[in-house]
Amino acid sequence: MDFREIANVEYLNQGDFACPGCAAGLSMRHALKVLGDETVIVMPASCWSIIAGGLPTTALQVPLMHVPFATAAAVASGVKNAFKEKGEPDKNVVCWAGDGGTFDIGLQAISGAAERREDIIYVCYDNEAYMNTGIQRSSATPPGAWTTTTPAGNPLIFEKKDMFNIIASHNPTYVATTTIAFPNDFYAKFEKAKNATGFRFIHLLSSCPPGWRIDSKDSVSAMRLAVETGIFVMMEKEGEQEIKVTYKPEEFKPVKEYFKLQGRYKHLDEETINIIQERINKRLKKLNLL
Predict the structure, then answer these.
(1) What total number of domains does the chain contain?
(2) What are 200's strand-pairing partners?
């Protein structure tokens, strides 16, 4: 795909309800540029349920189905099979869900859809907490990050759930991580997902200025730093192939550069930051990146 050809295509109207600097809104805008108008969005409860606008209006120019929190992958499976029965197998049926509806509440339906090889694309925009309802911790919240429900006294009590490998263990057609902060990587992975069949899963890191305690102008910078410090690794797995890292910085930056940009980490002391850095280094070595 020549990405210059889609630069002026818009399927997201002006006037949505996203916060300034919301990467979830930016991600949807650019994902639809790739997916095109033959797309149906299935959306569980999330920030995007509000961003899209209240029914009967919507900011999207493609069909949108709002569904209960736990049911997105199951509903999308039914929608896709209905299109096949109608003789329209080329429709892109896409779940668009937050980390709460993916890592936590919707995980059973996702696992079932992946195991059955349902022909859908599941996209998780991960802002690392239940941001829409007041910044509560999810199992996507990284160690050390503040939320309104993180237990006090031990900032490292929980690890972020490894969603990439959970999905990869189902042997899907395609599973990838990316962020709109690296648009070429983002576009390429959505193009692969669009052109494939079977179960496809894309995990998007998606900064949230209110929840991450950052200025809206730093939204993209924060996502880039997550990749450049090794906190978020951009990779993909196609079918039976080995995991492939799709972007590696020339040299990883220290994690404290990522932390100092965000108010949700301001309570961390040097010892805790060093422990987190050691954990990141261990994971990067496991991926042969250090």
Answers:
(1) 1
(2) 121, 174
Kindly report the length of the chain. 290
User: What confidence score (pLDDT) does residue 153 get?
Assistant: 81
Whole-model pTM? 0.97
CB 21 within 8 A of CB 216: yes
Domain of residue 184: give its range.
3-286
- Nearest 5 degrees, angle CA 73-CA 79-CA 84? 125
Ranges of beta strands (E only) in the chain are 39-43, 64-66, 92-98, 121-126, 174-178, 200-205, 235-238, 244-245
Q: ∠ CA 255-257-261 to the nearest 5 degrees?
A: 120
Contact assessment for residue 82 and residue 118, using Cβ atoms and an 8 Å cutoff: no
User: CA dist 122 to 31, 60, 97, 190, Å?
Assistant: 12, 18, 8, 11
Distance CA 16, CA 53 (A): 6
The domain that contains 261 carries what CATH number?
Answer: 3.40.50.970
122 forms beta bridges with: 95, 201
Name every residue whose Cβ is closer than 8 Å to that of residue 250 and which is 6 or more positions away in sequence.
none
pLDDT tens per residue, range 123-150: 999 999 999 999 999 999 999 999 999 9
In angstroms, the Cα distances linking 134 to 28, 190, 215 are 22, 30, 18
Instruction: Annotate 78-117 with b (16+ C-beta within 10 A) or e (fewer).
Output: ebbeebeeeeeeebbbbbbbbbbbbbbbbbebbeebbeee
Task: Provide the angle, in degrees to the nearest 10, between the axes of the packed helices 72-85 and 107-115.
Answer: 40
Q: Averaged over 233-247, what is the pLDDT?
A: 97
Instruction: Name the amino acid, one letter, at 15.
Output: G
pLDDT digit string, tens, across residues 184-197: 999 999 999 999 99
